[in-house]
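Entry 12.
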Amino acid sequence: MQTEPLDVVRVRADFPIFDREVNGHPFVYLDSGATAQKPRQVLDAERDFAEHYTSAVHRGAHTVAGEATELFEEARATVARFVGADPDEIVWTSNATEGINLIAYGMSNASLGRGGPAAERFRLGAGDEIVVTEAEHHANLVPWQELAARTGASLRVIGLHDDGRLRLDQAAELITERTKVVAFAHVSNVLGAINPVETLVGLAHAVGALVVLDACQSAPHLSLDLHALGVDFAAFSGHKMLGPTGVGVLYGRSELLNALPPFLTGGSMITTVTLTEAEYLPAPARFEAGTQRVSQVIALARAVEYLDAVGMGAIEEHEALLGARLLDGLDRIEGVRVLGPAAGVERVGLASFVVDGIHSHDVGQFLDDRGIAVRVGHHCAQPVHRRFGATASTRISTYLYNTADEVDQALEAVADSRAFFGVDR
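Predicted 3D structure (tokens):
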């Protein structure tokens, strides 16, 4: 079924930031892989809450507190529908990093004996293994390193082919009856590759291992159905999908969340507290201690509604066209090496690349002088850069509000940077 083409002009009109100039040029934003811009609907949602509904949720008995709580929980249902989950499987966090740490530290607490018999499946010790990939963002690597260090478990790593695809042959060898967790990104934030979730879930579940999906680069760009994917946990951040900073989402299958010992403890997540012990509420409340990020949650729901209104299918198709144009253009520039799969392999509309003889920071500064914002550095993913012999790269990432002309401007600037820095001889 063919989707309606995305109306970029209409979409861009909703984003106030595109009215500005940078360094005397119209602002070209190609850094949505780091954080996305926000439409007026999202900006207005936070202001509206502050002006009319400011109150603590799930606490006050007065009218405004009740209204705030209703908006807060409606937002949970909205986000749950967007990713193919049930509302009680959605936990609010500060970001995806906190969500992944929540799982890892919950498993650490289970390994110390917390949670009783229900938490037995989360306990790790010597001889157990955690499997990750060589392409992980540090947020889906360091928490597992720490869990291994605390429990005595071992960390195993699935490598990459030279074209950036996962070595599935190695995955089949590494995922064994000793594996307790398999954690990987749905989409690499450096390589742009879309990983084969179904294959990895099948390998993990065949040996009883839990699957943790980093969905930061997929939730904003791809139609996501977490139930259909069959993952056990998933995490993503609001600010990468038109929402505010300071809010993220942890998905977990209901029976798992209700068995996992909590990570943060305090008010609003308990049933009974004495001076010596506490009993915890069912999920998701058991993981939402303290005062919540209420206005951000409500604004994230507006962001999800905005993406739904545009249509995720239309967004996917639009970004696929931009991504193909980007890869083709980079391939035509002498001295430029793209990290990750070439055109034709399933991937999203981002590309990280190295310009021979020019540091990525210098490439980024050259583009910034023309009003073009891109990401430079190792993108919180040092191991994958090391795998491909790079200390850093320049990353161009597209989204629903970008145009083909903006991609062309960036490509022209990359090509011109070679002459500017004298490496085109």
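Annotation: Residues 63-82 form the longest helix (20 residues). Residues 45-308 form a domain with the Aspartate Aminotransferase; domain 2 fold (CATH 3.40.640.10).
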